[in-house]
What we know:
Elements: E1 2-4, E2 10-11, E3 15-16, E4 18-20, H1 30-37, E5 45-52, E6 72-79, E7 92-95, E8 108-118, E9 127-134, H2 145-155, E10 162-172, H3 205-218, E11 222-227, E12 233-242, H4 245-264, E13 267-269, E14 284-289, H5 291-294, H6 298-311, H7 313-318, E15 342-344, E16 351-353, H8 355-360, E17 365-367, H9 376-388
Parallel strand pairs: 5-9, 15-16
Antiparallel strand pairs: 1-4, 2-3, 5-6, 7-8, 8-9, 10-12, 10-13, 10-14, 11-12, 14-17, 16-17
Helix pairs in contact: 2-9, 3-4, 6-9
Amino acid sequence: IWLGARAGARAAGGRVAGVRMMIQRPQLEQNMKDKYEKLDIGGKVIAEYIWLGGLAAETECGYPECLDPTDIRSKTKILDKAPSSVDDLPVWNFDGSSTMQAPGNDSEVFLKPVAMYKDPFRGGDNILVLCECYTPQGQAIPSNTRANAAKVMEKAAHLKPWFGIEQEYTLLDMDGYPLGWPKSGYPGPQGPYYCGNGSDRVFGRELCDAHLKACLYAGLNVSGTNAEVMMSQWEYQVGPCVGIESGDQMWMSRYIMQRLSEDYGFRVSFDVKPIPGDWNGAGCHTNFSTEPMRQDGGYEIIKKCMERLEAKHEEHVRVYGVGNEKRLTGACETAPITEFSWGVANRGCSVRVPRSTEADGKGYFEDRRPGSNIDPYVVTSILVETCCLGD
């Protein structure tokens, strides 16, 4: 397991240093789990408060940077009754010095509930609660990227921005090798794995399907899944979602994935280039439109967006994923990170415009630059700022 630790010193390239260790997870029989999960809790409601840890949204470099998209923290609160809305949920707190989000001499960080979902792990009236992090004085802490994103989305609310995000990920054994790969060597070349079927081509479908159903149960707008180009690489799509809901649902979907990995004994990697060489990296392609783009004449608005995106290409790629230069090389269905390009139905461009958008004169576009380890709050908000609030 790769255990990241920010201990004052950072590795070359400004990344977090760490140590590589093997962890063996004990397996608990299902009947043992059922014994306790079926107990009557007397009408109480279990609320799992969830927030982004210090490495999920780090700002030491001067701009938001997601060093670890799996750094999602949670703690359990017991409620006397089911809340009717998120406004009924109490503010809580945690020790921010243990998550790299506060100093030890002033460690209290407040958890403000902003969204709630059905809990697919505990069932019943139990809930998952997504929270923002604030100081006791009411200021958003630096890692609270949702606070700024919510302001951006509020400014553009009249445009009804829609997002559909394609989250790619790679499943690994606990020893760090991709699931199903030989321990010394490589599987056959890419080609048969994308949307493939069969015991010699597809590994991890059970986790992919469980994640899909758990997300749908929770109330997330997951619209599909598929096996990806590299063996043991998968994708799920979240959206369309309006405004801030996109980032909320993306982070919650990642939390659910992490929790499921505990049950299945797999590791989930959001590394943008988990395997060097002629193997596809992992992206988080972000599909975007506004109501004017979806109406007649919208294609002309999209063309203007391309000009704005080109002008701010460097600003965008800076927040489009740590290590993304390993993925955006101009090979494996990517455009070079140093250049901006767009085209119709071209998956080798920075931004792809669907053929249907060109034909209908309206629709959406797909920004193919974001890597799998992005902070979706940052990516969705910068797209809105560049395309909608630039004037």
